[in-house]
Design goal:
The protein is an alpha/beta fold. It folds into two domains: 49 residues, Helicase, Ruva Protein, domain 3 (Orthogonal Bundle); 128 residues, Dna Topoisomerase Vi A Subunit, Chain: A, domain 2, CATH 3.40.1360. 38% of the residues lie in helices and 13% in strands. It has seven helices and seven strands; from the N terminus they run αααβββαβαβαβαβ. Strands 4-3-5-6-7 form a five-stranded mixed sheet. The chain has a two-stranded antiparallel sheet with strand order 1-2. α1 crosses α2. The chain starts with 5 loop residues before the first helix and ends with a strand.
């Protein structure tokens, strides 16, 4: 594809790196932004820079936040339950079901030997510390991970680590299709999976 200018080409190359956006869509977006008022385009650019430079993660539950201080306690959530998810979009998906009112723990990924991601590369150790803290009120951990090979491997590993903690370990009901991604499940199905969660048996 030939471009009218080097600047357009550079913009297209960067925009097309985003998931689901090809060169043609990237070109349309670049030309659209070029036609907008300078303040609007600068505002978009500044918001993206701020997103990258100012975004923080809660030091306790690892949810994307504006600060490292946990906001869960201020939201009057049930401290007796922790729902373990892969990433922040899963938190948002579960919150949208209005069927869960406990705390969350974001792993930031799943165990995937093929991609070189082991237990130490995700937030499992901090989960174990939360649960085993003498002041912890946790009596149930829900493993709400996508039903993929990596998700099941991660759930099995966590369940094994928590086996002797005396904590009830449950998993969301299999209303989510095998191999599916949690964040793309519809709210009704996901909500029912939370409500109908089962004792985790590692199978």
């Amino acid at each position: 594809m030939e471009y009218p200018s080097k600047l357009i080409e550079e913009a297209v190359n960067e925009i097309s790196k985003l998931p689901g956006i090809g060169k043609k869509t990237a070109l349309r977006l670049a030309l659209y932004l070029l036609k907008q008022e300078a303040d609007e385009t600068k505002g978009l650019a500044e918001s993206l820079v701020n997103l990258r430079e100012k975004t923080r993660y809660c030091r306790i539950c690892h949810i994307i936040s504006d600060s490292e201080d946990c906001t869960c306690a201020s939201m009057h959530r049930d401290p007796a339950i922790i729902c373990v998810v892969e990433d922040t979009p899963d938190v948002m998906a579960i919150q949208n079901t209005a069927q869960y009112n406990g705390y969350f723990h974001v792993l930031g990924g799943v165990i995937s030997p093929l991609e070189g991601i082991g237990p130490n590369e995700i937030n499992i150790e901090s989960l174990l510390k939360r649960v085993n803290n003498p002041d912890s009120q946790v009596n149930e951990v829900i493993l709400a991970l996508s039903p993929t090979m990596e998700g099941d491997t991660t759930a099995f590993y966590i369940a094994k680590k928590l086996k002797d903690s005396g904590i009830k370990i449950t998993t969301i009901a299999r209303g989510i299709p095998i191999g599916g991604e949690l964040e793309y499940a519809d709210e009704i199905t996901l909500g029912r999976s939370i409500v109908q969660r089962m004792i985790y048996d590692g199978k």
